[in-house]
Amino acid sequence: ACVVSILVNGDYNIPSNSTQVIYPILLIGGGLATYIDYSRENSIGTYVKKDPSDEESGKSKMSAEDQKMVNKIGLTVQDGLKYFFLWLFLLVGSVAAVKTGVAGEFVTLFESFFRIGSLIFGGGVVMIPMAQSEFVYEKGWLTDEQFFQGVGLVQSLPGPMFNFSAFIGALHGGFTGSVVGEIGLMGPGFILIFAILPIWANFRHILWFKAVLKGLNASAIGLIVGGCVFLYAKSVKCAADAMVFMLAGTLAGFYNLDAPFVILSGVIFGSVFSSLELGQKPY
Question: Minimal CB count within 10 Å: which of 16, 154, 166, 203?
Answer without folding.
Answer: 203
